[in-house]
Design a protein that fits this description.
Layout: H1 2-60, H2 73-76
């Protein structure tokens, strides 16, 4: 019984291998198309990476000099504070009939 089971498993494995080989000859043309698509996707992703690297260089701001636009803390004290108006009423104004 075990012998018959072993032969059955081996025959099934052989048939699967033959199917793989038979379909492998047809896959060579399909592989060329998939390789071209893969290469195109790789180039596309490389362009995205270049763009990302350029943006990161901008956001890190290591090469920028902001000393010319710094605010003097003593001049900020001279600016008057704007007090909010707490008497705001929605019944008046735009929606009033």
């Amino acid at each position: 019984m075990k012998f018959l089971l072993l032969i059955g498993v081996l025959l099934a494995a052989l048939q699967a291998a033959e199917k793989t080989n038979a379909s492998g000859t047809n896959k060579s043309a399909a592989d060329d198309g998939s390789k071209a698509r893969t290469e195109a996707q790789i180039k596309k992703q490389m362009e995205k990476e270049k763009k990302f690297a350029k943006e990161q260089k901008f956001y890190q701001a290591d090469e920028y000099d902001f000393k010319g636009v710094q605010v003097d803390p003593h001049s900020v004290k001279k600016i008057k504070a704007i007090e909010p108006e707490y008497d705001f009423d929605m019944s008046e104004g735009v929606y009033g009939d």
